[in-house]
């Protein structure tokens, strides 16, 4: 029985393990928290772009059927919107993470939510072909739904051995 508790405790990262990982580099800590989807940064960008595009396609398709939240003039504006928002998101999140990586993971969720809202708003203002329809709360509801669906995708990606290369 004691051995089972030791096995469970060895799987849980304690304060010392986290400090050792942070000393090795904030990128490894970002990988542990799920901020980074792959250890190779180029693969992370590719996986994140594909994931964001798939999540956006699902979300826009579902919401346009019941309650339209966002409108696009054409397919090209949709593709440009999500590629641009992904690139801005990567730049802002990694810059923020390098500055505040010692913050608690639960606070990072709030910070990343605010970052996603600001990224979607910024890209929406940059592209006249894209608009969050009807109400100002649409950008908040879109961001919440986007982050929830993307969380499901990223949980699968982080556990899929064929994506992670046997990690």
TrEMBL record:
Transmembrane parts of this sequence: 45-63, 75-99, 106-127, 139-157
The entry's keywords: Membrane, Transmembrane, Transmembrane helix
Domain of life: Bacteria
Name recorded for this polypeptide: Uncharacterized protein
